[in-house]
Amino acid sequence: MSDFGGMEDLLQDFLIEAGDLLSGVDNKLVDLERSPGDTGLLNEIFRGFHTIKGGAGFLNATELVTLCHLTESLFDKLRNAELLVTPEMMDVILAATGSVRDMFGELERGVQPGAASAQLIDLLKLAVAGQLTAEAAATLTNTPAPVQVPESEPAAETSALVPVSPVFVPPEPIGEDGLDWNALYEAVAGGPPLSAAAAAPTSVAVDPHGVQGKSPDEIIQAAIGRRASDKPGYSGPVGRRESERQRDNSIRVDTSRLDQVLNLSGEIGLTKNRLNALRSDILNGRSDSETLHALDVAVSQLDLLVSDLQNAVMKTRMQPIGRLFQKYPRIARDLARGLGKDVELMLSGEETEIDKTMIEDLSDPIIHLIRNAVDHGVELPHERVAAGKSEKSVVRLEARQEGDHIVIIVADDGHGMNAERLRAKALEKRLITDEEANTMDERQSYNLVFLPGFSTADKVSDVSGRGVGMDVVRTNIQKLNGTIDIRSAQGKGTTFTISLPLTLAILPVLVVRLDEQPFAVPLSMVREILPVDPAEVQEVGGRATMVVRGEVLPIYTLSGLLGWPQQHRPEYGVLMQTGERNYVLAIDTFAGREDAVIKSLDAFRPKGVAGVTTLANGQIVLILDMKELLASFSEQSGISREELLQQRLPSAA
Q1: Is 623 helix (H, G, I), strand (E, B) or coil?
Q2: Which terminal residue of the chain has fewer beta carbons within 10 Å of its beta carbon, N or C?
Q3: In sequence order, what E strands does 103-212 have?
Q4: What is the average pLDDT across 564-583?
Q5: CA 187-325-59 angle, 5° bins
Q6: Would you say 572 and 582 are in contact if contact means Cβ atoms under 8 Å apart?
Q7: What pLDDT is recorded for position 604?
Q8: CATH of 171-190+341-501, one of 3.40.50.300, 2.115.10.20, 3.30.565.10, 3.90.1150.10
């Protein structure tokens, strides 16, 4: 039974508005720590908290009001210059905002929130009184313990470094092939594992007055109010309540966009009436040139209006990606503080719009990339100084629109990747062969981090071997019909570039034909179309291949992937790229490009079919899931050169 009888709608409105306000407050607090004298920021933070307190009071959430009021009193003293911002004070303030977020969770379950921890309340009172000390703040169990780097300590003290587990935590431990983050750090950085990264000439010790810092999972939960182990790409993430899923399905739309939809709908109605009148005239025998011209004009106008309406409706689904980005500055700040690093997360392109349905699925992959950049990408301050860099590291999160795609970049200015070491580690685990290692360029070597089971660990430990790996990030990006690419330079940093379609509702496809049957393949996987010239077909290992600009690519026939009989020799090859696998898809012919409106097959979905669409001529066409087809039928779909070239057109008889 809810404690908010008759106020459920008001409660949901409060949670949505207050959640956005709290995320904004967290971001401004991170900015305030870098600019402690910015009174404008303090005033904005004060107003945000005051608004949250007012809404909580209307809902009779007494304990939430108490916590907000005490924190607001601290902000008031800061903006009046009675107190100064310190890292310890910021730890306590962020612990308070984390507690507020926990209370939001209780409200969402329909119950009044309980009191904040007595420890947190006592520390807030000490801070308001100007009596907060570093030792007192370090006792806060919700605060990441600062990592200190003394000038001279024995190397044995390196064991005091707080271990940090990966963001994605599987429901049960992975076996020996699980990803070992220490090994990955060693391979990527070209240096010692994480647990020994700060050894020689200095060592790492935890503040003796504090406790062990939070794990990344706990830090992220405090920052965004959800379990970090929720798997990305899942429509209803683990740990989310039904009320959350319903709220996630809502969308905010600018009224001007709805006005545009309404106006276009009205114009389409008028054009429909005009077409009905012309239809009646034609049925009554009027077929003069004037009537036919009026019909042509009306049909053209309807085509234009429907196209405009489609674009307007699609825009109602678009949301600024800044709503996704706003949770990350605090995550980066807390992770960096727990690791003894000085990291600034720089955001740009927050106004870039992206389909609402994609935002939720992007959240965890981007968290994972930021976490890796802070944890494994950038160096400790003393290492940066020794390398001639500034103590402060910069991690850049950027979004921009390029044509019909959205590009998201996560870049750091750390030590970069070592391609040779990556190949050596992959060889050691027998994830690649000697032949593959010798033919890999730098880009292909970097992409080894996406392989599941990339590890050098002999056994799973509390520190490593329990992450589900970068392969999950790439898999979930590919589920959004996107791609992810890595660029790195040793000593300068690493850049991950994610490319996504503007929307998932409309998918550009290439329509190909097998005999007379059309099929659609995602255009994002198509690099080019080539003629299948028998003189250019070679045989390697019993399989037909083609050499395209120096790259030997296997040929798979569409008939082989589908299990259909091949009627005649394919005339064309579509150069496809699925993940890191390039190949030639042999087809009979192609019918061109279409913008497909995807219809899912909920009740029955054959393997290798992503959905269906209707072509301009009204024909229903299957949209193929090429990755699934290739994974399921690659062995059966292989074809020798002789089999490929000896097929002939059937005789006229």
Answers
A1: strand
A2: C
A3: 147-148, 205-206
A4: 78
A5: 130
A6: no
A7: 67
A8: 3.30.565.10
Q: For the beta carbon of residue 544, count every other beta carbon within 10 angstroms.
A: 23
Among 71-85, 189-203, 320-334, 518-532, the minimum mean pLDDT is found in 189-203
Nearest to 218 by CA among 108, 94, 128: 94
| Domain boundaries defined on the chain | 8-143, 171-190+341-501, 214-230+254-316, 506-646
pLDDT in tens, 130-145: 888 878 777 775 444 4
pTM of this prediction exceeds 0.70 = no
Percent of the chain with pLDDT over 70: 75
Spatial CA neighbour of 504 closest among 353, 322, 323, 317: 317
> 506-646 in CATH: which number?
2.40.50.180
Residue spans of beta strands (DSSP E) within 89-172: 147-148
φ/ψ region of 611 (left if φ > 0, alpha if ψ in -120 to 50, else beta) reads left
Mean of pLDDT over the chain = 75
CA distance 224 to 328: 9
CB 638 within 8 A of CB 560: yes
Strand order in the sheet with 526-531: 526-531, 572-578, 581-587, 551-557, 543-548, 537-540
- Among the ranges given (211-215, 223-227, 522-526), the one the predictor scored with the smallest mean pLDDT: 211-215
The three-point CA angle 217-117-241 to 5° equals 50
**Closest-CA residue to 405 (of 486, 491, 311, 480):** 480
Instruction: For residue 308, give both structure tokens.
Output: 């405009």
CA distance 253 to 43: 29
Asked if 432 contacts 382 with a C-beta cutoff of 8 angstroms, the reply is no
Q: What mean pLDDT comes out for the span 88-106? A: 88
> How would DSSP label each residue in 352-380?
-EEEHHHHHHHHHHHHHHHHHIIIIISPP
CA 56 to chain centroid, in Å, comes to 32
Q: So what's the pLDDT on residue 644?
A: 65
